[in-house]
Amino acid sequence: MRYRIYCDALVTDGQRYRQRALVIEQGRVVAWEPYDPARLARIEPPDIDARGYIALPGMIDIHVHGGFGRDMMEGTTNAIQAIARQLVRHGVTAFLVTPLTAPWHAIRQCIAAAREVRTHGADGARVLGCHLEGPFINPQRAGAQPPEYIRPPSVRELEAELGELISELRIITLAPELDGALELIRYLVAQGVIVSVGHTDATYEEVQRAVELGARHATHTFNAMRPFQHRDPGTVGAVLTMPELTAEIIWDHVHTHPAAAELLVHAKGAEGVICVSDGTTGVGMPDGYEFELWGHRAVVRKNAARMVETGGLAGSTIAMDTCLRLCAQAFGLETASLLCAANPARALGYECQLGTLRPSAQADIILWDPATQQVAQVFVAGVRQNLVSPSAGIESPATNRNTQP
């Protein structure tokens, strides 16, 4: 079916184009057209009158653990599909399932479920693969990662524990200063996996060595990494100054001060930064809601998820529409869309298919309401999504999702 979406403007690839109609056919953008007065006088189905809205590329969240009462570490297709249905409400049209540091059997189960959903598809946002955050991280920078499951970097252990599931990994977060890390980086780069420095106490020089071996990414910059000092620039200094590294940022005004987020964009340039949610089970849940991170309790308090025992942050309670809105307040919608859509697409090698509204791209589209600064409608591969109410997507797991066998 061929149809048009008439919108006040479309924003893509850092540019704004006013009064355009997006032409959609067979799930792809096939053309842009200027407003046609004759057509505007009588817009009929299947064409869509979206005047008053701005069309944006669908957002891609490359670091998300769960949300809406569900956790991807449940290790079931049901959990991932339930989360996918909710993420699309917030303008996310594709994402990486993100297992965290846990027993290997739980990591395997999560990745296997992600593979099944990726292969067979699901309603809502599409799964592009996995971002494995751990277990090869530094215990000194563990953050909310369960310390009892942290492992020393080992190619042999990774192959033994994941086997063919390694092919599902798009990104892996590790600490490059640990013994065995450099060998693992060489191996992962050869496998086509993006190596991300994170949960790390690496010096500037240790990050530099990792970059020389092919590391290309940094996980939630500023958080759980060696900070910047003028005589010891640390991991943060490396991320700020090394153009080879793309830098994640949790743009929620909780994990990072707004000035720190803006500093990162000024240092890296808009094309060097990627917004992520780092969303956990607590996304979309009310204050006082408690959930479990492999034996460690967390609670939602004042728009943040915090560990009950320590008060430390335990991932975020936001989705990507919050990142888009807050980034746009600082830099404008054109730049915010780069950080939330184009940049993650490019990092994953999908720049011609996703994160853009250029002709021939997938018709993954957000209609953004500039008056409310909220997502009004979403299309995935040209199909209008059912934006269910928050409560409709909160589905309780049949069993305790973090109970070990």
What does this molecule look like?
It is a single chain. Mean pLDDT is 94; it is low at 391-405. The chain has 2 domains: 2-57 and 356-387, Urease, subunit C, domain 1; 62-348, Metal-dependent hydrolases (TIM Barrel). By secondary structure, it is an alpha/beta fold. It has an 8-stranded parallel beta sheet. A 7-stranded mixed beta sheet has the order 3-2-1-4-18-19-20. It is 26% helix and 27% strand. The protein is built from 10 helices and 20 strands. The radius of gyration is 21 Å and the shape is globular. The chain has helices spanning 37-40, 77-87, 104-120, 155-162, 181-190, 204-212, 234-241, 258-268, 320-331, 333-348, and strands spanning 2-12, 15-25, 28-34, 48-57, 59-64, 66-67, 70-71, 92-97, 126-133, 169-174, 194-197, 217-218, 246-249, 273-275, 290-293, 296-301, 304-307, 365-369, 374-380, 383-384.
List the helices and strands and how they pair.
Layout: E1 2-12, E2 15-25, E3 28-34, H1 37-40, E4 48-57, E5 59-64, E6 66-67, E7 70-71, H2 77-87, E8 92-97, H3 104-120, E9 126-133, H4 155-162, E10 169-174, H5 181-190, E11 194-197, H6 204-212, E12 217-218, H7 234-241, E13 246-249, H8 258-268, E14 273-275, E15 290-293, E16 296-301, E17 304-307, H9 320-331, H10 333-348, E18 365-369, E19 374-380, E20 383-384
Parallel strand pairs: 1-4, 5-8, 8-9, 9-10, 10-11, 11-12, 12-13, 13-14
Antiparallel strand pairs: 1-2, 2-3, 4-18, 6-7, 15-16, 16-17, 18-19, 19-20
Helix pairs in contact: 6-7, 9-10
